[in-house]
Specification:
The complex is a heterodimer of chains A (about 130) and B (about 120).
Chain A lengths: L1 E7 L2 H18 L3 H20 L4 E9 L3 E10 L7 H4 L13 H8 L2 E7 L2 E11 L2
Antiparallel strand pairs in A: 1-2, 2-3, 3-5, 4-5
Chain B lengths: L4 E4 L2 E5 L6 H18 L3 E5 L8 H16 L3 E5 L3 H10 L8 E2 L2 H16 L1
Helix pairs in contact in B: 1-2
The chains are: A alpha+beta (about 130), B alpha/beta (about 120).
Bound molecules: adenosine-5'-triphosphate and magnesium ion.
Magnesium ion binds next to α2 of chain A.
Chain lengths: ~130, ~120
């Protein structure tokens, strides 16, 4: 079991988080396409936490056993929350002059994707797994 | 300037060599536009071989840069995108990256030349 926690305060933390995620995925034996999917999803969600959620932290954990390898990402912030999650998950929806592609894109890149949000902040948990042979 | 921009005759060549923060990416956009305008070139090739993540923010900066350069009267080609980056961009949905692309720098310059010719004719 591996675990890393990255504080999210500034833009360089986004780069740090996706680097650590990629390295862990590589160590666990995920291929380069999966490493890039994961790093990109981390980039989207950690940027949102900094841009809209006043910062927070990103926990990256992973394991590999006889059956499977799995990597999980949890990004939490203490921002104002997302008023309408269904809307935020739509392609093209943005309140920040973005492409509105971050949340829906990250969901497509990962195998698991959960988001909860309230007035106390937002939490996104996502995961990627693969059978070990 | 984090991303050097080189002038080669009537075109500009630039290669993004490291992971850029969002601010670095915006600085790069400004530098590129400034350079296109002041050096009066016909086009710009952006080599992204070294980028192992192109997320929606970076995609937007690249798109915007290309659009603005075209408004200034020049052409843009992005080259060297890693296969896994291309795959990820497609999987994320829609057409996130709306620019002319080429496999590598050499083909990028070739493509840029033909775009410039087309515009002039
Ligand atoms: N952590 C968050 N806290 C509060 N609001 C958020 C958070 N994450 C996303 N949102 C809201 O959901 C919207 C959609 O987010 P999404 O990441 O899909 O697009 P974007 O950030 O606007 O643009 P892009 O990611 O394409 O640059 C945001 O514009 C914002 O209003
Ligand atoms: Mg976003």
């Amino acid at each position: 079991m591996m675990k890393e926690i990255i504080g999210l305060q500034q833009q360089t933390d986004i780069i740090q988080a996706r680097k650590i995620g990629r390295e862990m995925a590589k160590t666990l034996g995920f291929g380069s396409a999966d490493q890039t999917r994961l790093a990109t999803a981390i980039s989207e969600i950690t940027r949102n936490a900094i841009q809209y959620g006043r910062g927070g932290h990103c926990a990256i954990s992973g394991y590999s056993d006889r059956n499977e390898r799995k990597i999980s990402i949890s990004v939490e912030d203490r921002g104002p929350g997302i008023p309408d999650i269904d809307k935020a998950m739509e392609d093209g929806y943005t309140t920040g002059h973005g492409l509105g592609a971050g949340l829906p894109g990250a969901r497509r890149l990962m195998h698991e994707f959960h988001i909860e949000s309230g007035s106390g902040g937002t939490k996104v948990v996502m995961g990627m797994k693969q059978k070990n042979f | 300037m984090k991303v050097p921009i080189l002038k080669l005759g009537d075109i500009l060549l630039t290669s993004i060599q490291e992971d850029l923060t969002d601010q670095d990416a915006v600085d790069f956009q400004n530098d590129a536009l400034c350079k296109v305008r002041t050096s009066e070139v016909m086009g710009l090739v952006v080599d992204i071989t070294a980028l192992d993540v192109v997320d929606s923010f970076m995609a937007r900066v690249i798109n915007e840069t290309a659009n603005m350069v075209r408004l200034l009267g020049a052409e843009v080609v992005v080259c060297g995108m890693q296969p896994s980056v291309a795959l990820t961009l497609i999987e994320m949905g829609r057409e996130l990256l709306g620019v002319e692309t080429a496999l590598n720098l050499e083909l990028g310059v070739e493509k840029l030349r033909s775009l410039i010719e087309k515009r002039q004719s």
